Amino acid sequence: MPTIHPPTIGAIIRARRTELGLTASALARATDVVPAAVAHWERGTRRPHGQSMRRLAAALQLPVETLREAPTGGADGEAARDDAKAAEREGSAA
Questions:
Q1: Does any domain span residue 44?
Q2: Per the domain annotation, does 14 fall within a domain?
Q3: How far does CA 20 lie from the centroid of its chain?
Q4: pTM here?
């Protein structure tokens, strides 16, 4: 049976942004960051912190905890797949 992973922070950000009809540029303006930061967050290559996290949560109309507790990873689940592959390799090496 496949393992079900909770949505990654990147998936949450992208899904909520599109639900609200925001472009990545509009979200960047609302959170006072450059658009590249939003792209990094959605891809899961970086996480928002501090004031950026609070502004992002407010712009997305989400509790900060929703973002803070989400696992790292991109909107496409790439990081979760990479983690699963690494775990499989480690398990087969033992």
A1: yes
A2: yes
A3: 16
A4: 0.78
